[in-house]
Each structure stands twice: as structure tokens, then as C-alpha cells.
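Dear support,

I submitted the protein below through the web form. The confirmation email said the job was done, but the results page showed an empty box. After a refresh the structure appeared. I'm attaching both so you can tell me whether what I see now is the final result or a partial one.
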Amino acid sequence: VDDGTVAEVILQPHPRLGVGCFGDFGQWALLRWGVLPESEFMNMTASRRRFSQEFKDELCQEVISTSKTIKDVAVAYGVGPETLRTWLIKYRDTHGGTEAELSVDERARLKELERVVQDLRAETAFLKKASAYFARDQRL
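What the results page shows now:
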């Protein structure tokens, strides 16, 4: 309702989080009726950047295909890291993850390594039991 009521926007440090808690946006708006028309204030709060789905997908592909971190890509394109992280989660959900299928050689190597790990775990368990047995004999 635009009845001519006005509001004043005062930027102050956040009472609990302090200055700098949101990077360069460490201040929050405190409204006081009197200076700014309500319609202008509503326009200020409604100005939110929107990004196309293609742009979001390109950033997600860059994070996935390169060794760059989410933060590096987000800073390079002027997007918040948590925003990019959210886009990445949605991208992986819709595109069925990013893991490529293993080749025959990679599958064989994986099975071999799993067998080695299983053998080492069995050996470790045996050595623990043996050391406990010999430690018990020495106390007697």
C-alpha cells in the first residue's frame, strides 16, 4: 500500500554477528519511518540478481571438470560460494552425478586393491591377537 508513508534505512553493524560477518556486506538495514518512500524501499529489497540455467550449468561444469575449488570459481564469476554449492548439488542430482564409468582395466585394478585391503585387514587382526597373547604370557 503506497499511502505516502516513508521509511529511513540506517546501516549498522549486526548486533550479534558484528561488522564483516558477511564479507563486504557486514551491515544490516534498520528501518525507521520518516525518510524513504515505501515504494523505493520495496524496490531496494526486490533487486536480486537472477542467473540463467546455462550460466549455472557452465559454472558447475567448470568446478567438476577442473581442479578449481567452488570458492575459486565463485569468486572469479562474482557469485557466492554457497550459492554455487547449491547449484552444484542440484546439477549433480539432475545429471545423475559426475562419476564416469570405470574401464575394464580400472575395474580390475579396483578389485585387486580391494583384495589387498582385505588381506591387510586380516593380517592386522591376526597380529593384534598375537601381540595380546604374547603380552599376556609375559605378565605371568
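Response: this is the final, complete result; the empty box was a page-load delay. The longest strand covers residues 6-13.
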